[in-house]
Amino acid sequence: MILFIKLFLAHLIGDFLLQPKKWVVHKEANKITSKFLYFHVVLHFVITMILLWNLDYWKLALLIAVSHYLIDLSKLYADHLFRLKSIPFFIDQILHVLVLYVCAYNENLTAHTISLFSQLDWALVTAIVFVTFPAAIIMGKLLEGMSDQIELDHKSLPNAGKYIGMIERLFVLAFIVLGRWEAIGLLITAKSVFRFNDLKERNSRKLTEYILIGTLLSFGMAIVTGIIYTQIK
Length: 233
Known about the structure:
With about 230 residues, the chain is mainly α. The protein has twelve helices and no strands. It folds into two domains: about 1-120, no CATH class; about 120-230, no CATH class. It is globular and about 65 Å long.
């Protein structure tokens, strides 16, 4: 585990802490001919060796550096295929982490992977999945009749309410799993404070009631999910 942690730390330092914005821009513009692409790869090799502090790992560090070069280069040429630039970014990061995982556990990769899956808390995984998109869809159906009576705010970000709801339910579930029920009260208070000015400016009773019902439903579903999980785990 300590080997993977060190490799992951080296990746974080090389990809985020020590990669200036101008390097990223230059790589995107010049791709394979960008000198900063090669600086970036060499930097990863050096950081990995420093953190491992063992010359016996030079082949491992070289393998990681080469794979990093190939993944980054592929991303540079595939960027234009995606409308959202966040998609190739996350694919790139997932591939990097997978390489680190394979390198760290190459001697017993299959056994370690099987062990990881066998130790997963599937009840918790199910609870996490439920409070995200399934809960959002269920809430949309429950509030469907009311939402038709609410004037849309075109200044709002698309689907912002849905994602805010998912995040708050994940927080509520985490607090229940950790046994920190008081934190749920703080979360409700914080949300109320942020919503207060909007509701005051709109001066709409229907909107206030709609948001209140939606908030209670969202927190209620997360709380019930958390209680069920704690009872069956």
